[in-house]
């Protein structure tokens, strides 16, 4: 599973183009960003289709099987589904942050994760916990988290996140998107390549056990930075809004607070 997860993470990241940062910045800079939400929704849907097709190609070809190291297709498909719903949940949470709405999306995610944990514990107690039941449970609650946040935002902030305002210029939105995302794309691809290559070498040379040790260590490192990263979006939303409004002085004050 550990190596399969790095495959699907890099597969999703291959078409990311820093969409999450771009989406957040553009949404935060406009009070009514319905056109931005719709545009990015279409882009992400296309990315999902392409990533599934590539995964099928990897599973059906000899060269592809060398890359995935014999990982079962169904496990990879479930992992890819989990990767996408977690990414979409993160984007929906960022959408709330971009409008200054952070409390309830976080609560919805917390409740979903707590219920998911209880379900997994119950499955383990009944000896029904397998790789497949674990992945299906994680995917199901990921979907619930995403849709619960989007339904909440849709019902409480329809005007600012979904409603079209006049005749929106699709070309200008795409131009703004590319202007923000392209400079970071090459650096992202470099990081993806390095991460996949090092994990591929671990899997190829040492096998699944050592891969699992690496995976656990990486997760612990991610847990350590949660406290500092969780408040970043709040500061960033305020920073982007002030820059968009032309208030550089106030934006500088926000940045100095963030920088310590």
Q: Care to count the β-strands?
A: 0
End-to-end gap: 39 Å
Q: How much beta, percentage-wise?
A: under 5%
Low-confidence stretches: none
Largest sheet geometry? none
Oligomer: single chain
Average pLDDT: 80
**How helix-rich are the residues, as a percent range?**
over 70%
Order of helices and strands: HHHHHHHHHHHHH
Query: Radius of gyration in whole Å, from Cα?
Result: 20 Å
Description of the structure:
It contains 13 helices and no strands. 84% of the residues lie in helices and 0% in strands. α2 (19-29) packs across α12. It has helices at 2-13, 19-29, 34-60, 62-68, 73-98, 103-125, 131-156, 158-161, 170-205, 208-224, 226-230, 232-244, 248-259. It is mostly helical. It is globular.
Defining key terms:
single chain, mainly alpha, globular
Which helices and strands appear, and what pairs or packs with what?
Layout (H helix, E strand, L loop, with lengths): L1 H12 L5 H11 L4 H27 L1 H7 L4 H26 L4 H23 L5 H26 L1 H4 L8 H36 L2 H17 L1 H5 L1 H13 L3 H12 L1
Helix pairs in contact: 1-5, 1-9, 2-5, 2-9, 2-12, 3-4, 3-5, 5-7, 6-7, 12-13
Describe the structure concisely.
The protein contains 13 helices and no strands.
């Amino acid at each position: 599973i550990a190596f399969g997860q790095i495959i699907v993470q890099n597969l999703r990241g291959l078409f990311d183009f820093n969409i999450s940062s771009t989406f957040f910045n553009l949404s935060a800079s406009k009070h009514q960003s319905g056109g931005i939400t719709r545009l990015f929704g279409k882009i992400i849907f296309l990315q999902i289709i392409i990533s599934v097709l590539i995964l099928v190609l990897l599973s059906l070809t000899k060269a592809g099987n060398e890359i995935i190291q014999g990982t079962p297709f169904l496990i990879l498909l479930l992992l890819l589904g989990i990767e996408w719903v977690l990414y979409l949940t993160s984007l929906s949470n960022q959408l709330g942050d971009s409008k200054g709405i952070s409390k309830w999306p976080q609560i919805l995610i917390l409740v979903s994760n707590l219920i998911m944990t209880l379900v997994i514990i119950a499955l383990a107690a009944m000896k029904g916990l397998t790789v497949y039941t674990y992945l299906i449970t994680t995917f199901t609650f990921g979907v619930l988290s995403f849709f619960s946040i989007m339904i909440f935002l849709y019902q409480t902030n329809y005007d600012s996140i979904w409603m079209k305002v006049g005749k929106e210029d699709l070309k200008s939105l795409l131009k703004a998107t590319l202007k923000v995302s392209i400079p970071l794309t090459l650096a992202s691809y470099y990081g993806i390549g390095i991460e996949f290559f090092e994990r591929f070498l671990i899997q190829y040379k040492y096998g699944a056990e050592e891969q699992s040790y690496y995976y656990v260590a990486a997760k612990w490192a991610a847990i350590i930075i949660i406290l500092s990263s969780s408040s970043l979006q709040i500061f960033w939303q305020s920073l982007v809004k002030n820059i968009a409004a032309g208030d550089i002085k106030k934006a500088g004050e926000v940045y100095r607070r963030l920088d310590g």
